[in-house]
Design brief:
Strand content: 35-45%
Radius of gyration: 15 Å
Distance between the termini: 30 Å
CATH topology: PH-domain like
Largest sheet: 4 strands, antiparallel
CATH architecture: Roll
Oligomer: single chain
Order of helices and strands: HEEEEEE
């Protein structure tokens, strides 16, 4: 039997103090209505004859855009970085897989 979980939307609590560094690099996300946020992975192609790798991202979907943020090491210090901002007008659909760890966006 499958369990049913209520949809909360902002699972990462993007407006909370623990996510402050991530929301700072996202720019205008604090002025937008957050529809959904969670941790996700993207597939990274490191090069020819190398295996694909999963790279963690913070995903935030608002009414204006889809934000993907990541944490990179800068001089051995974890630093948040905006990976990409995709305007909502360019997104045709969003599909969330129920099997972790990959979510697909078209």
């Amino acid at each position: 039997m499958a369990s049913v979980r209520k949809f909360f939307g902002d699972y990462l609590d993007m407006r909370g103090p623990s996510m402050r560094a991530i929301t700072d690099v996202m720019g205008s996300v604090m002025n937008e209505t957050i529809l959904c946020s969670y941790k996700s992975n993207v597939v990274v192609h490191p090069g020819l004859l190398r295996g694909n790798k999963l790279s963690p991202r913070f995903l935030c979907l608002t009414e204006q855009a889809l934000y993907l943020a990541m944490v990179v090491m800068v001089k051995k210090v974890p630093t948040p970085k905006l990976d990409r901002r995709i305007p909502i007008s360019l997104i045709q659909s969003v599909i969330k897989s129920s099997t972790p760890p990959i979510s697909t966006f078209f």
